[in-house]
Specification:
With 285 residues, the chain is α+β, with helices and mostly antiparallel strands. The chain has one domain: Beta Barrel (Thrombin, subunit H). It is built from 3 helices and 16 strands. The longest helix has 23 residues. The protein is globular and about 40 Å long.
């Protein structure tokens, strides 16, 4: 029994030193607990339904993924800026991050793809969550053969304006077991004025953001799913930014709208520089 306790304590110390700031990034979300499920009340995804979804995590034990992401091409992933910054708004070192992809059940012992560089949107505002996106360049390519792997493919962009009531889906994992299962919830587009009128948002929803999800209690997204994708008509329309009520009433998810950022996202594909970890990639607030 004593050896078990010591082992648990050792893992706790490793985790506290290596990744405490990753979990701190969402502590301002009311009701946040680090080990909440990624998706609350979701439906299990099937093979090939959301093949571009990945988990972004740490290489060190205990290997828990702490954010979501979306594969854009053979060596780039889109996620939220807040996933790759410390609470002091400095960049997490790229070699501390990695990707789990191509699976409906997260196997934390599976091979991972490393990250070579992290590109944060230069106008990201950590207080309003405007421009809350980042592109990760992987250290090796995603392999998508001629006959695609059912759960590994690149996302297509949704470039139109989402309309009120449009049926969309947000994807993540239920973290209630040792092998989390990929799930999705239906998240209809919510009118911006309605979303801004909710006490949790208080008029902070900008034009570049979109709210999705019901205002009544039910299935919802949780803090550990920041950076995952909102899909409308099967294409990537948004990246989860805030509004992480885990199914609470009047707390729909808020997403960065992809259509506003397509030029910037595409510019990152040709970059070969490596921003220095520990520095701030955004203006000092």
């Amino acid at each position: 029994m004593r050896s078990i306790v010591l082992t648990v304590l050792a893992f706790a110390l490793i985790f506290a030193n290596a990744s405490a700031h990753q979990y701190a990034l969402a502590e301002e979300e009311e009701g946040y607990e680090p080990f909440q499920p990624f998706i609350s009340g979701g439906t299990n995804a099937v093979n090939g339904q959301f093949p571009s979804i990945v988990a972004v995590g740490l290489p060190a034990p205990p290997n828990n993924a702490f954010c979501g992401g979306v594969i854009l091409n053979e060596n780039h992933v889109l996620t939220a800026a807040r996933c790759v910054l410390t609470p002091q708004h400095t960049l997490i070192f790229a070699n501390q991050l990695n990707i789990l992809s191509g699976m409906l059940q997260l196997n934390f012992g599976a091979p991972r793809i490393g990250i070579a560089a992290v590109y944060v949107h230069p106008q990201y505002n950590p207080f309003t969550f405007e421009n809350n996106i980042a592109v990760l360049r992987t250290s090796s390519n995603f392999f998508v053969p001629i006959v695609p792997v059912p759960n590994l493919d690149f996302a297509l962009f949704y470039e139109e304006i989402p309309f009120d009531g449009q049926a969309c889906q947000v994807v993540g994992w239920n973290n209630g077991t040792a092998t989390p299962v990929q799930q999705f919830i239906n998240a209809p587009i919510l009118n911006r004025d309605t979303c801004n009128g909710l006490a949790v948002h208080l008029g902070n929803i900008r034009e570049s953001m979109v709210c999705a999800g019901a205002t009544n209690a039910g299935p919802g997204v949780c803090a550990s799913n920041i950076g995952t994708g909102l899909f409308c008509d099967g294409r990537l329309a948004g990246i989860l930014s805030t509004g992480l009520g885990c199914g609470q009433a009047n707390n729909p998810g808020v997403y960065a709208q992809i259509r506003f950022y397509l030029p910037w996202i595409r510019e990152q594909f040709s970059r070969q520089d490596i921003p220095l970890g520990g520095t701030s990639p955004i203006p000092v607030m």
